[in-house]
Automatic annotation (TrEMBL):
Organism: Marinobacter manganoxydans MnI7-9
Protein origin, superkingdom: Bacteria
Enzyme Commission number(s) from the entry: 3.1.4.-
The protein, known as: Phosphoesterase
Domain Calcineurin-like phosphoesterase residue range list: 15-152
Enzyme class name: hydrolase
Length: 165
């Protein structure tokens, strides 16, 4: 049973994590503005040029993975996946959720992916599947979006933020 997770009210205060993906070398000022206040920023791949990471790092520490276009620069050296933990909540980050080759139930609270450019903020069982959508060049009619996770000892909540571009 899937349920939406679009509010942070029931968790109270928590760690603010900005999530971005599929910048494809385009760092929008609106994305940077939306990510301000993040304690850490996760980039779920298809970074593109190094200046994307530089711009994000000016806001908060960045944890990034390599996407399918990341063949040069700093992005080419990034790992394909990341195992993360914040305030006791386990997160797994990979670029394309279709390549997830294990069941995250009972192991991870959040699976973060990019690649599709389609925002996703969906609970399946006890796992939040979160895709911040595409923040770079527009793809088809999909919105330009980033995401935010609020993490505390009691759980995780996700929010998709549509950018006005």
């Amino acid at each position: 049973m899937a349920r939406a997770a679009t509010t942070t009210k029931h968790l109270g205060a928590g760690m603010q994590i900005g999530v971005i993906a599929d910048t494809h070398s385009k760092m929008r000022p609106e994305a940077l503005e939306a990510l301000k206040g993040s304690e850490v920023i996760l980039h779920a791949g298809d970074v593109g040029r190094d200046d994307v990471l530089d711009a994000l790092e000016a806001i908060a520490p960045v944890i990034a993975i390599r996407g399918n276009i990341d063949k040069s620069g700093r992005a080419a050296e990034l790992p394909d996946t990341r195992d993360l933990e914040f305030l006791g909540q386990a997160l797994y980050m990979l670029h394309d959720v279709k390549t997830l080759d294990f069941d995250p139930q009972g192991r991870y609270r959040v699976v973060i992916a990019g690649h599709s450019h389609k925002p996703r903020n969906e609970w399946i069982g006890d796992v939040l599947y979160f895709n911040p959508g595409g923040a770079g060049p527009r793809r088809f009619t999909l919105p330009i979006t980033v995401g935010r996770l609020v993490v505390n000892e009691n759980g995780v909540t996700g929010e998709i933020i549509e950018l006005r571009t």
